[in-house]
Amino acid sequence: MNTVIVTGAGSGIGLAVATKLAGLGYNVVVNDYNEQSAKEAAERIGGLPVQGDVSQEADVARMLEVCIAAFGAPTHLVNNAGHVHQSRFVDLEPADFDRMIAVHMRGTFLCTRAVLPHMIARKSGCVVNMASQLGQIGGWNWSTTPPRRQASSA
User: Fold this and answer.
1) Cα–Cα distance between 21 and 29 in angstroms, integer?
2) For 119-136, how does the pLDDT look when each residue is reduced to its tens digit (9 = 90+)?
3) In whole angstroms, what is the distance from residue 151 CA to residue 118 CA?
4) How far apart are CA 15 and CA 6, in angstroms?
5) By the 8 A CB rule, do 97 and 125 touch?
6) Angstrom distance (rounded) from CA 57 to CA 61
7) Confidence band for 82, pLDDT divided at 50, 70 and 90
8) Alpha carbon 11 to chain centroid distance?
9) Is 125 exposed, middle or buried (CB count within 10 Å of its CB: 0-12, 13-18, 19+)?
10) Reduced to 3 states, what is the DSSP secondary structure of residue 78?
């Protein structure tokens, strides 16, 4: 049985991915920063909700522990969690920039690092790093989306 952790799955692209994979028979761990969103999404698709901040090592470790306890080690990971602060670049505060980098880059690193030992031991697995179209083309008042896409695609 395939098991996937989808980060940022409480809404949007993450929820769509989680819904599709649940429909294909995957065990789905629905992660979201917002506990209510994670619960509602998991209930909707028959997944397992795990609230957590992917930029926090303890939250990522707990997410993996919950996954392993319920389904065994994940066979797939979808790094989808994102945080966007809409502003002109000149108005962007360092704290807002730091939060975006923490979620997009550190979160991708922490989640991937957590699941890889299990995938390597099994000699099988798949990690998908998501980015929206704004990551490719940018947009007015979206000052830092393109660097996120480049960082997670590198």
Assistant:
1) 11
2) 999 999 999 999 766 655
3) 24
4) 8
5) no
6) 6
7) confident
8) 11
9) middle
10) strand
Hey, is 75 helix, strand or coil? coil
pLDDT single digits (tens) 4-41: 999 999 999 999 999 999 999 999 999 999 999 999 99
Q: What is the pLDDT of residue 87?
A: 78
- Within the chain, strands assigned E span 3-6, 27-32, 48-51, 76-79, 126-129
* pLDDT tens-digit readout, 59-79: 999 999 999 999 999 999 999
DSSP 91: G
The four Cα atoms 49, 54, 58, 63 give a dihedral, to 10 degrees, of 30
* Tokens read off for 33: 């920063």
Which H/E stretch holds residue 22? helix 12-23
Mean pLDDT across the chain? 89
